[in-house]
Automatic annotation (TrEMBL):
Record protein name field: Sugar phosphate isomerase/epimerase
One Pfam family hit: AP_endonuc_2
Gene3D superfamilies named in the record: Divalent-metal-dependent TIM barrel enzymes
Keywords assigned by UniProt, alphabetized: Isomerase
Length: 305
């Protein structure tokens, strides 16, 4: 019998509600408002640093039993740090900063810390950088264990040549990378991936092949759209709205989730979110409603065919 409780609603707060996330008081009210419908099982957001908001969010999270992911990819990038840098001094600096972020994340009993592999510094040294990223992940996992945090690590494979130009993104390389780690780490889901439709599309990958190969490692799915025409000025990963110019729609979204189910080797719980970045504060709640309904339709469609 097919388990129809695999997919859980997640909300990318820092994308959908971006205009409301840059002021502490506004953000506090936002988390309060989001807790009232009780319809999300997961919240994905930026690291919380304000002491008052840490205490407030911890209380809201506990009440709502939100599975919480802090994505630190942007902060690491803005600090000009690279967790896969060939410069060992810079890589260690990145690791130390990630450890500080993990300590902060633990104050709200964060469930996942989310990162990406970082930009490729030299195409001829891509595989050397993958080795560097492996060292970083191992050091992070060891630190979490040393501190007795219940936190897990999720990394997002990004596009490798189109826009973000990260070290890790192609399915076969992601699969090989994940299989480097001890089986007990993978069995406990201490390390997993976020499967983002835009990045795999920009990597010119066939979705079903990708899902079939790495399904056991997928703990969350981001429905994101992209313009795939290289001559179009909008080509790349821009967290754009879903329209006829891109590839993402409810049919595609359902087929992604359906393929995960078909593999029969997926994780017991997979968190699903829409990744669209809103810039207009007056439209954020309309986008939230649209995103929720989109995910709801995709989950329903995954089981109906």
């Amino acid at each position: 019998m097919v388990n129809k409780n695999v997919f859980k609603h997640s909300l990318l707060v820092s994308n959908i509600f971006d205009p409301l996330t840059h002021d502490t008081k506004t953000l506090e009210k936002l988390y309060d408002d989001l807790s009232k419908p009780l319809r999300y099982q997961s919240i994905e957001t930026r690291l919380i640093r304000d002491e008052h908001l840490i205490n407030k969010f911890k209380s809201i999270k506990s009440k709502n039993q939100w599975n919480t992911t802090y994505w630190i990819t942007g902060e690491i990038s803005r600090a000009k740090l690279n967790p896969s840098s060939m410069d060992e001094t810079l890589r260690v600096k990145a690791v130390n900063e990630i450890k500080r972020m993990i300590d902060l994340a633990s104050l709200t009993k964060c469930d996942f810390i989310g990162i990406a592999s970082g930009p490729c510094e030299d195409e001829n040294k891509r595989y050397d950088q993958i080795d560097q990223f492996q060292k970083t992940i191992l050091e992070i996992l060891e630190y979490i264990q040393e501190k007795s945090y219940s936190m897990k690590v999720v990394f997002e494979p990004l596009d490798v040549f189109a826009h973000k130009k990260n070290v890790l993104g192609k399915t076969d390389e992601v699969y090989e990378f994940l299989n480097r780690f001890p089986k007990d780490i993978m069995k406990a889901n201490q390390l997993s991936i976020c499967w983002d439709s835009a990045h795999f599309a920009l990597n010119e990958e066939e979705f079903n092949y990708s899902i079939n190969k790495i399904a056991p490692y997928i703990s969350r799915v981001h429905f994101a759209d992209a313009i795939l025409d290289k001559d179009n000025e909008a080509y790349g990963d821009w967290h754009r709205n879903f329209d006829q110019k891109g590839f993402m729609n409810e049919h595609v979204a359902s087929s992604i989730l359906r393929q995960i189910i078909k593999t029969k080797v997926h994780q017991e719980e997979i968190y699903v979110a829409v990744e669209i970045r809103e810039h207009d504060a007056s439209n954020v709640w309309n986008l939230e409603e649209y995103s929720y309904r989109f995910v709801e339709s995709a989950i329903r469609g995954a089981y109906n065919k």
